[in-house]
Amino acid sequence: MTSKKIKALLVEDSHVIQHLLSEIISKDERFELCGIAGNGLDAIDKVIKLQPNVVSMDINMPIMDGLEATREIMKRCPVPILIVSSLFPSEDKTMAMQILEAGAVAVLPKPYGPGHPEFLQSVKKYLNMLESMSEIKVVLRRFVPPTKDPVQKIIEEDLSKKEEKPEYKILAIGASAGGPEALKTILSNLSPYFPLPIIIVQHIDGVFADDFCNWLKTASNLPLSIAYQGEFLLPRHVYMPPGNCHLKVLPGSMVSITDEDPNEGSKPSINVLFDSVAKVYGRKSIAVLLSGMGKDGANGLKTLHDKGAFTIAQEEKSCLVYGMPKTAVELNAVNKILSPIEIAEEMHSIFNL
Fold it and tell me: Distance from the CA of 340 to the CA of which of 38, 166, 288, 325 falls in 20 to 30 A?
């Protein structure tokens, strides 16, 4: 008895890339190439008619681009969408981040062509990502107007009321699929007076780490940067790891960037970050686990919880993929279950902001 094949829809306007990717997908016995769309509008129509298990989505296309197509698909007939981006045009990378916010599950560089020394490796990565994306359940996206900007309210308040609670020394956040949208909401609603250093581990292909950081920086009310080896964590600053590296904290609030093997299949790993935070800060930590597939971060959150840290998981209703938070809840690793906007509000409540 053969297992049911994964129905994949290819959305790509370049005939050359269409041919390359359709050949790659069709020759793999795991997949059925159920259709090809040459633009975003065609993609919406084919998703509705063909009901694919996963969509490989290009970015820049005529008639309707990948951003608008993803928004419409996730509003009308949600399906896991893998953004397949060129490595070179900076505008593609910027839009790739916006598409992740709109509900795409992941972003990946386009596979190299035959004859390139990394052709087989890039094809394997592409196909394995399509397979793993097809297994997740995404939810209908409800796009709501931005919330009232809390920064003006903070500025108008008496700054003498802002007293840091000494029991907490760090905020650690882990995120995967659906994380960019949640992170943007949290950081754009978090007060610029939030007193702790914040460390974020977001699952994203290493070649997009800098672009993701730059995109998220535009939404953050706090300075945000890629951390480097030996850096000391500063209050009111946000840090992320370099691409394809783990990030740990060491005694003395020092950053450690490591090249260890993946943990739970992830590099950077949320578990690696959370475990290090548990060792250094213990109960003086706040840790948040956001939307994502798989289990990375759940065990680390449990370790923190058992040490007395304050732990939060994103609520199911607001998650694009309710995988990591669900596992954490099942492990009894969570003190509170909140939406992204409620997480920012909770931080304000803790520190009287």
Answer: 166
